[in-house]
Write a structure and sequence with these properties.
The protein has 452 residues and is α+β, with helices and mostly antiparallel strands. The protein has helices spanning 16-24, 36-42, 75-81, 92-105, 114-118, 132-135, 142-166, 181-194, 262-268, 294-303, 324-333, 343-348, 355-373, 382-389, 403-433, 437-440, 446-451; strands at residues 3-5, 28-30, 34-35, 46-47, 56-61, 196-199, 205-208, 218-219, 224-230, 236-243, 255-256, 271-273, 280-283, 312-315. The chain has two domains: 3-126 and 152-261, set domain protein methyltransferase, domain 1 (Alpha-Beta Complex), CATH 3.90.1410.10; 280-451, set domain protein methyltransferase, domain 2 (Alpha-Beta Complex). It has 17 helices and 14 strands.
Length: 452
């Protein structure tokens, strides 16, 4: 098994039987093959008898799904979170996390989801919970930067919300001793690790927590998939968990995760997959604010279904080549005014637009990858190679990883991707300069370059 859990907990939750009873009495139906006894002991559901591919293992009524609309059931809290003072300053994830804390601790009214919320764990294996001495082992990596950014954002949100939720002016929506930074962090992390995403009526992606489903681990190689069932009116009436292959007794239920890189898995779930085929490094750029053609270039990117702020993932490919979509975006970025009409060729083709444009693209990638490598304490792979050898076992069997080993793998992966991309850039640069003259004159701005 390639998926490695960083921390393993076996915790008995006194509230799980109550959660179980609430689920079964409020629109959750679970297949008889699912062993709920194991669920109540360790909040992990397994199969106790063989099931066929396509079996519906659980169904959940849409009426009991916890989402952004659920906050409206507590008008006092909703008014605070939607106030002008907080408008645009609090994300949907943080709003939902505050609602979880409010539902758990408020004496104003009994939340229908209270038994589910009380079953949430007060621990986590995400890098958000790593102590500083372990987190610094990831220094230079994407997961390190994103972890620090998330923690800073949560700290800022907490300080912003504290007077609005615990002050005397709001009559103590949440008891001050309960609205703590760690409590908010646990709720936020549970949303990141256990929620699913849907589109609201405005087309925004918002988080939802689905009873029972929220408790199952997310894995890229899961044997179960979440699907929606619609009623006659065309709206979703329930969500179902379906087996995507035959399952044997003893197998644990999980939910097929989105296509996540290892840095996303570590940050959201505290797991990683050494064979993750979706692993890569995020790459994004911004147009120069002084670029007179910035608006037009963004319009072209919009025609391509993207924007200057959208991230691209540089995958761990054999030849190190970046995604074609990233190269097209960079070609748009490097367009000069005299060749701007050539944007249609960029949209419809993966071929270079011109010699000058392509060399500027390669130079930009070279500078960016060099900057990313400089974030590491050293720019070679020797240290990581030697370190990972110390963790090898005689029979090479999978084993629970320590944080130093996880950090070594992450650093090795990210450096390897960057080194391979830089080798690809060098080869591409040399090949561009060796283009035969009769082919070079076909590149649109060759004559222009020659006269400059």
């Amino acid at each position: 098994m390639n998926l490695i859990l960083l921390l393993i907990f076996t915790v008995a939750h006194a509230s799980l039987p109550a959660y179980h009873d609430w689920m079964l009495g409020n629109g959750v139906e679970i297949h008889e093959s699912v062993d709920l006894h194991s669920y109540e002991e360790a909040k992990a559901a397994s199969i106790k008898s063989f099931v066929k591919n396509g079996t519906v293992l659980a169904s959940v009524s849409s009426d009991i799904i916890l989402n952004m609309k659920s906050i409206g059931q507590s008008p006092t809290l909703a008014n605070v979170l939607d106030s002008k003072e907080l408008e645009g300053r609090v994300t949907n994830v943080i709003k939902l996390a505050v609602f979880l804390l409010y539902s758990k601790h408020s004496v104003e009214s009994e939340s229908p989801w209270k038994s589910m919320i009380e079953s949430f764990p007060n621990y986590g294996s995400s890098t958000s919970f790593w102590p500083q001495e372990d987190l610094v082992l990831l220094n230079g990596t994407t997961v390190y930067r994103r972890t620090v950014e998330r923690l800073r954002g949560i700290n800022s949100a907490y300080n912003l919300l504290l007077p609005h939720l615990t002050g005397t002016d709001v009559d103590g929506l949440i008891p001050t001793e309960q609205f703590t930074l760690p409590a908010l962090l646990y709720c936020i992390q549970h949303i990141f690790s256990s929620s699913d995403s849907v589109k609201n009526e405005r087309g925004e992606t918002v988080p939802v927590l689905i009873p029972f489903i929220e408790s199952l681990p997310r894995m890229p190689n899961s044997c179960c998939r979440l699907q929606a069932r619609n009623n006659e009116a065309g709206t979703t009436s329930e969500l179902i968990l379906v087996a995507t292959r035959d399952m044997q007794a003893g197998e644990e239920l999980s939910v097929l995760s989105d296509h996540k890189t290892n840095y996303q898995m570590l940050l959201d779930h505290g797991t990683m997959d050494l064979q993750n085929k979706f692993n890569g490094i995020p790459f994004s750029f911004r147009f120069d604010v002084n670029d007179p053609h910035r608006v037009m270039k963004n319009q072209v990117l919009s025609m391509m279904g993207t924007s200057e702020f959208a991230e691209e993932i540089i995958m761990n490919t054999d030849n190190g080549a970046p995604p074609a979509s990233l190269l097209r975006k960079l070609r748009i970025q490097m367009l000069d005014f005299q060749n701007f009409d050539s944007y249609r060729k960029i949209i419809t083709s993966n071929e270079p637009l011109s010699l000058g444009n392509e060399l500027r693209v390669l130079r930009t990638l070279w500078g960016a990858t060099g900057s990313m490598l400089s974030s590491f304490s050293n720019q070679s792979l020797d240290y990581e190679i030697d370190l990972l050898k110390t963790f090898e076992t005689d029979d090479n069997t999978p084993h629970p990883m320590t944080r130093p080993e996880v950090s070594g793998h992450i650093r090795y992966e990210e450096k390897s991707i960057l080194f391979k991309l830089r080798i690809w850039i060098q080869k591409k640069w040399l090949s561009m300069l060796e283009i035969p003259f009769d082919e070079m004159v076909q590149l649109e701005d060759f004559r222009t370059l020659q006269t400059k």
